[in-house]
Amino acid sequence: MCGVLREGSPVSDRYEFIESVRFDDTAEYAFPVTFMCDRVGVSKSGYYEWRNRPKSATAERRDRLMLLIRKAFDDSDGTYGHRRVHAQLQRWDVQAGPELVRLLMRQMGLEPCQPRPDRASLTEQEEAAPIPDLVRRDFTAPEPGMKLVGDITYVPTWEGWLYLATVIDCCTKEVVGYAMGDNYRTPLIKRAVEHAERAGRIQQGAIFHSDRGSNYTSAQFGEFLKGKGIRRSVGRTGICFDNALAESFFGVLKNERVNRVVYPTRGRARRDIIRYIEFWYNRKRLHSALGCNTPAEMYAAHQEMRLAA
Fold first, then answer.
1. Which residues form a coiled coil (predicted)?
2. What percent of the chain has pLDDT over 90?
3. Could you give all domains of the chain from N- to C-terminal order, each with its CATH number?
4. Which residues contact 98 (CB under 8 A, 6 or more apart)?
5. On the CB side of 177, how many CA atoms lie within 13 Å of its CA?
6. Contact 197/177 with Cβ under 8 angstroms?
7. In the 8-state DSSP scheme, what is residue 281?
8. Looking at the chain, which runs of residues are DSSP E strands?
9. CA 218, CA 202: separation in Å to the nearest integer?
10. Do 185 and 215 contact (CB within 8 A), yes or no?
């Protein structure tokens, strides 16, 4: 069956799940109503009673839901799928099952933008000096500022490439530092780390993890991190999964913003990316790995716990 129904879901959610499967023209299989009711633990008569309620009440509820679904979708600039739209509705104290949200979004023709796997590598394939992998694909941390990841990507403009270096906190998934320029030499990645440091987002002895790009593995960058009391960590050559958190952010940035606009100048691209990071990604975008909270909310929660301790 398409969709997900969690154990202990309300009866109305189970009815909505059956309804969505019945009218899902993308479903691979078709199941009898009796079979589905038995599988999700409701009665067939109860389902039809729910389905045949006075149309005015059902229609009015769905009309209100569709307005709120449209708002959540538009507020995300067309990037939210049904799970994040459902999470946003919950934050607004709107009761609706995820299957109903999915069904209504399909009926409204609301499809989130899809990623384009077209990122070229900025990583040198030559063997670098021996640097340990202190992360080993564990992109979590008990508190902010302890474990950070970084990477570089590029953004096309009519003036040429704009290179973006980022620093992301593994605890909050927040972009805590970034820098942009017309090249990706070592000073660019140093500026990104300094940005995070000025914001007070790096603890003494923190880990900074990256891929084996020539700049990240350079002696100059190593001395820079050592001087700040930061431990350097790198993944294996050419293995993108070893820096998956940084790669994931770039995928989201390009999918939700960069691939959808054209930048005449580097300055225009820089302003747009700053606005996306500061006002959307860090503060408003619901992050599935954070239980559909925002990075800013996670950071604030950790600060409250620290002050209370």
1. none
2. 41
3. 11-52 (no CATH), 58-108 (no CATH), 147-308 (3.30.420.10)
4. 3, 4, 13, 82, 83, 86
5. 26
6. yes
7. I
8. 147-157, 160-169, 175-181, 207-210, 231-234
9. 21
10. yes
